[in-house]
Amino acid sequence: MTRILDELRRLVEAESKTNDLPAIVGCARVLSAVGTDILGSVPLSVSTPHGPVLQWRFGSGPARVGLIGHYDTVHPAGSLEHFPFRIDGDRVSGPGTFDMKAGLLTMLHAAGAVRDKDPGGLDGVLLHCGPDEEVGSPSSKALLQEAVDDGMRAALVYEGAAPGGAIYESRRGGLWLKVVLSGRDAHASRAYEGANALHALADYVGRILDLAAPDLGTTVTATEAAAGTAINTAPGLASLTVDIRSATMSEQLRVLEAMTSMESAVPGVMVHVSVIQQVPPLELTQSRPALESIREAVTLSGMQWPGVATGMGISDANHLSLMGVAVVDGMGPVGGEDHSPREWVSASNILDRINLSASCIGVLRKAFS
Ligand SMILES: [Zn+2]
């Protein structure tokens, strides 16, 4: 335990906010050293515009099983000054502890335990540590896709566990849209000479809210709006951003399709919808086969079933789901308050999660060889 906490301290004290390249490179160096020590081999370091992606590959055949993590955090350099690494009983706090440097150690030590038991026990396993997950993995996503093209069929993602230790079997996806309504300016006293985009916007917002399907987990939320230039001008231009969350890709596409084909209720106002960002959901259909293997591993080892949960946030598991990989998330330890200066992780739970993962790796290798 002392060893793991010392490694966690080294990783946390190597601050690594996404896009802070010197910091990211520094943390990659520490992670590489820590991982080499645990696994007995040096990672492949692939440089990307967001920093190095570190990968450990085992065996000569294709990697069928991926263990996936990221080492960037949302905490800017200097956060340690007011939020230092700290051990308080079972509670270990510091920037990036829960999201997800303790998860990285869970992954490395689980793999290390498998290898110690059987030198060939990791053949066909790939460990992947990305530098840019907190901004949607713009660079490392391509390397995940490459791994999938090379034969990766199942993956465990080591984000922190759901409350109580549950594993994420699904994560909602997100779609962010910009809507521009363009009509024609006119003096408000003779508004009939123009086409009022603000009136059209008010009506449009009312109608898109009906596209939500709360029973399916689909939400539609208007988030930003702008219109108007003067108190006595009927505006010819209005804009809106909309946040859409859904549990399935088909729901995401249904809302997108409905919004793009929806016409303005005000004659002369045109509606133009564009995608700002689109992240697929982690779908139950993609998590089920991996979850079955985990269930088998838990039964074989006599461990307690950790339970399953739905995640509201987004992770690499979302991308892997769309790539057709059998994937679950939340394999990291229990903790909380990530993305805040109170972020923490349970020290004792790290060992439990290492044991859980170590049992899962063998079963997954067999199921997805
Ligand atoms: Zn994370």
From TrEMBL:
The keyword Oxidoreductase does not apply. Keywords: Hydrolase, Metal-binding, Zinc. Its cofactor is Zn(2+). Residues 171-260 form the Peptidase M20 dimerisation domain. Gene3D superfamilies: 3.30.70.360, Zn peptidases. InterPro entries: ArgE/DapE_CS (IPR001261), Bact_exopeptidase_dim_dom (IPR036264), Peptidase_M20 (IPR002933), Peptidase_M20_dimer (IPR011650), Peptidase_M20A (IPR050072). It holds the Pfam family Peptidase_M20. It comes from the Bacteria. SUPFAM superfamilies: Bacterial exopeptidase dimerisation domain (SSF55031), Zn-dependent exopeptidases (SSF53187). This is M20/M25/M40 family metallo-hydrolase.
